[in-house]
Specification:
CATH architecture: 3-Layer(aba) Sandwich
CATH class: Alpha Beta
Mean pLDDT: 94
Strand content: 25-35%
Strand order of the largest sheet: 6-7-8-3-9-10
Structural class: alpha/beta
Bound molecules: adenosine-5'-triphosphate, magnesium ion
Radius of gyration: 17 Å
CATH topology: Rossmann fold
Low-confidence stretches: none
CATH superfamily: P-loop containing nucleotide triphosphate hydrolases
């Protein structure tokens, strides 16, 4: 296990959103977290990233407790989050945004990280001098993922990476996520496009009201009546 969430209770100030939530990721898996609007998916990723406090329970990354660590410490540990809003620097160029992602890295590794990101997303190499804010939604999402990779994560968490994208770009982003996993990065993904996310996932967890209600193999859950009815439109 690379990431283990044990009986987590977390939320916003005194408002507890996650109750007794447990899940884990084995090394090199793609795992989906699916659930209805407001179920607590974003809150789960935020707690793992150190962006909100944990009241009870533990988050173990490579065996070390990371709950309630500062977000930059979590990044340094090798666990990197891509938020839904992407949080790019719109007035900075593509390559500058990528460099920002490498703030935990030594000068010498930045060069090779850049090459790897440009290999994965050639459009970012072509547009390296374009301002991030002027790029299309799909390109911005690739940049957000690329920036996260610049921190050389061993585990990547992604909050709805394909939201708002045209269908061909959804497929492209999910394909890139598979390619990232194939380089040895473990991935936890929250997706509205549950069917497509499940298709690339080894396993998935279903969250309701801040707790995991069931889990299974990705391909199996696509055919599970409970998932079909609630999340795949019947
Ligand atoms: N900053 C906040 N302060 C207080 N409550 C919040 C905050 N952010 C989210 N919540 C509440 O926490 C609950 C879970 O929200 P969360 O964003 O984790 O859901 P989600 O599963 O990601 O939903 P969606 O599919 O809409 O993205 C909701 O009831 C939401 O209103
Ligand atoms: Mg959300």
């Amino acid at each position: 296990m690379i990431l283990e969430v044990q009986q987590l209770h977390a939320g916003y100030r005194r408002l507890e959103i996650l109750h007794e939530l447990s899940m884990h990721l084995d090394k090199n898996e793609i795992v989906s977290l699916i659930g209805a609007n407001g179920a607590g998916k974003t809150t789960t990723l935020r707690a793992i990233a150190g962006l909100i406090g944990v009241n009870r329970g533990r988050i173990l990354f490579e065996g070390e407790e990371v709950q309630n660590k500062r977000p930059d410490r979590v990044v340094r540990a090798g666990l990197v989050h891509v938020a839904q809003d992407r949080a790019l620097f719109g007035n900075l160029e593509v390559w500058e945004n990528l460099e920002m992602g490498a703030y935990t890295q030594s000068r010498s590794t930045i060069r090779s990280s850049l090459d790897e990101v440009f290999d994965l997303f050639p459009i970012l190499a072509e547009r390296r001098h374009q301002k991030a804010g002027t790029m299309s939604g799909g390109q911005q999402q690739m940049l957000a993922i690329g920036r996260a990779l610049m921190a050389r994560p061993r585990c990547l968490t992604l909050d709805e990476p394909s939201v708002g994208l045209a269908p061909n770009l959804v497929a492209q982003v999910l394909q890139a996520i598979t390619a990232i996993r194939d380089t040895g990065v473990t991935v936890l993904i929250v997706e509205q496009n549950a069917k497509q996310a499940l298709a690339i996932s080894d396993r998935a967890y279903v969250i309701e009201n801040g707790s995991i209600v069931f889990d299974g193999r990705g391909a199996e859950l696509i055919d599970d009546p409970r998932v079909r009815q609630a999340y795949l439109g019947g």
